[in-house]
Amino acid sequence: MTPDSIYFSPEATAFRERTRQFLRSNIAPRLDTWEAERRIPRETWKLLAGEGLLGLHYPIAYGGRELPFFHSVAYLEELGRLGNGGFRGAMSVHSYMATAYLHLAGDHSQKTAYLKPAVEGDMIAALAITEPQAGSDVSSLACTARAVGDGYVIRGTKAFVTNGMQADFMVTAVRMADGPASGSGNLSLFVLDPRSPGVTRTPVEKLGWHCSDTATVRLDDVLVDRTSLLGRKNSGFLWIMKAFQLERIAAAVLAIGEIDRALELARRHTGERQVFGRALADHQVVRHRLAELMSHTEAARQLAYHAAWLYSRGTLAMSECAMAKLRATELAVEVAGQCLQLFGGHGYLADSPVAGLFRDTRLATIAGGASEIMREVIADTDL
Ligand SMILES: Cc1cc2nc3c(=O)[nH]c(=O)nc-3n(C[C@H](O)[C@H](O)[C@H](O)COP(=O)(O)OP(=O)(O)OC[C@H]3O[C@@H](n4cnc5c(N)ncnc54)[C@H](O)[C@@H]3O)c2cc1C
């Protein structure tokens, strides 16, 4: 990271330094325990909220700090740099995915009821779009909302809901039962209380991201009132496509932070580890491998910043966001693998930090839009 940047103001750079120190002092020492316990304590959201980190880009009126978007970019990069996928997943879903829909589509009373307490760390947010039979293909969602009296009855199953076990509200994408059984024209978004009668949450075990809770959420005729509808009826697909831009920028920037962490670990290790009478880093093949990875990282970082800059100016940048996510997350998987190789057998031990990165980065090319979907978006772009 160069200190002089066209993207980061001196204030944003100073904010990054403060945030890095805060995360290193208050979060990093606890991550191994949370990983082993398969949980992030609820008070952690409050701790981050105390630093303003849960609402950097949200309006002051709803508890946010209304800071320029590159403060968020700095925060997300530092979050990734902690090197723990579950923690960064839980926090980024809360602040840049689930609550994004309230910001985009919510009315004043919905923002007051959900966005503000989420920004202040008093409520945990989750986003439920994916279903067991529908992930990449959002237009095939099957969970339905049927109008009954003054409200709706929701029925279906949501899969892979990050923060799903702890969440106080869940932004949920559903198909309106009075429309067709497939396609994107009759999707709507609801804010749902996961403690309502008819909701069953079941945790799922994963390869990595251990401290982050992930749930399957069954919705058996869950009654919600009309005020739970976010935005207009049948406008869900539009909001999802809009919010995907931010989600993909966040995924790209988080991945860059994770890559920085992996390279930092690899450079330290190769500087210390002696093989055949010299440091590993003194073998030209190792130096050159690291130099290659560092160069690719810088290119991916600049692409992510460019996408973030377009987004911050309100430009529709679907393709750039997809390119940034594709490049950064694929690189994160590659770098984590290469760094594990440089650690040798020590890298393969369960408690090795590069093993954690190897497991956790693997998800990034799948969640929030798989690499194949990113390529589809890019390929569809007019030149
Ligand atoms: C730990 C974790 C946390 C998650 N958190 C959330 C969350 O909070 N909220 C939420 O809604 N979802 C969440 N997800 C779901 C995630 O976004 C989906 O897994 C992802 O969108 C892919 O959907 P799928 O798993 O159904 O895979 P599928 O759609 O079945 O795709 C399987 C694979 O097929 C390939 N593929 C798909 N489409 C195409 C195509 N057109 N051409 C070529 N290849 C293709 C891709 O490689 C893809 O990975 C989470 C997932 C995990 C594992």
Automatic annotation (TrEMBL):
It is an enzyme of class 1 (oxidoreductase). Residues 126-222 form the Acyl-CoA oxidase/dehydrogenase middle domain. Residues 234-380 form the Acyl-CoA dehydrogenase/oxidase C-terminal domain. Pfam families: Acyl-CoA_dh_1, Acyl-CoA_dh_M, Acyl-CoA_dh_N. It comes from the Bacteria. Its cofactor is FAD. GO terms for molecular function: oxidoreductase activity. Keywords: FAD, Flavoprotein, Oxidoreductase. Residues 9-122 form the Acyl-CoA dehydrogenase/oxidase N-terminal domain. InterPro entries: Acyl-CoA_dehydrogenase (IPR050741), Acyl-CoA_DH_CS (IPR006089), Acyl-CoA_Oxase/DH_mid-dom (IPR006091), Acyl-CoA_Oxase/DH_mid-dom_sf (IPR046373), AcylCo_DH-like_C (IPR036250), AcylCo_DH/oxidase_C (IPR009075), AcylCoA_DH/ox_N (IPR013786), AcylCoA_DH/ox_N_sf (IPR037069). Its EC number is 1.-.-.-. Belongs to the acyl-CoA dehydrogenase family. This is Acyl-CoA dehydrogenase family protein. It comes from Amycolatopsis silviterrae.
